[in-house]
Amino acid sequence: MKNYKRILLKLSGESLAGSDPQGINPEALMNFANQIKSIATMNVEIAIVIGGGNIFRGMQGVGKGFDRVTGDQMGMLATVINSLALQSALESIGTSCKVFTSIRMEPIAEFYSKQKAIKALSQKEIVIIAGGTGNPYFTTDSASALRAIELEVDGYFKATRVDGVYSADPEKDPTATKYDTLTYKEAISKNLKIMDMTAFALCSENNVPIIVYNGNDPENIKKILRGEKVGTTVK
Fold first, then answer.
1. pLDDT tens readout for residues 86-140
2. What domains sit in the chain, N to C, each tagged with a CATH number?
3. Is the pTM value of this prediction over 0.85?
4. Radius of gyration over alpha carbons of the chain, in Å?
5. Residue 215, CA atoms < 13 Å, CB-side half-sphere
6. In what order do the strands lie in the sheet with 232-234?
7. What Cα–Cα distance (Å) separates residue 114 from each residue in 43, 87, 97?
8. Tens-place pLDDT, residues 7-19
């Protein structure tokens, strides 16, 4: 098994919608809950950040006349809804879980701090951190990269719809080439859209390995944790 003792798992809000156009699909939700439960049994500490795009995306709101700050705040609340849904799903299958928020929302969830989150992780609780960074103009990619650094994880796991990083969008370009490994510099020079540049810069400057994989296959993350070559690793 590779040396992943603590990981940050980044899930998109759209992944919770599953085959539905928006909202939370119960089947997709339970798929991820079961994945997370299965890797927790591998003695890995797991922190999770979920996007909110299945409910509301701030930038889409701006295009429809919303103030940017208000739109981003609505997006932050969407991530809280998703986080509470995942917490409920995990607890329904007997997995201990705690949700923290980056903005005060007691009694819905506890206010985030590094110390409290690490204590929960050390007690083998799944930690879900909602609310982005708590500030507008930052994506959940940036929020998850920030939490990965704060929590001193061994890997940033980004679940996507495709099985790694490609030279172009494989859903649009059938000739796109998949990369097994990349350096941060290669990813920048090739202009590969792994995540937003703020998030990527945070990971690069703090040497946090980024593992991009297909999150729809429940076996993929377990294979990566066992050291098998799945997805793309950027380091």
1. 999 999 999 999 999 999 999 999 999 999 999 999 999 999 999 999 999 999 9
2. 6-234 (3.40.1160.10)
3. yes
4. 17
5. 26
6. 110-111, 97-101, 126-130, 45-50, 6-11, 155-160, 210-214, 232-234, 181-182
7. 21, 19, 16
8. 999 999 999 998 8
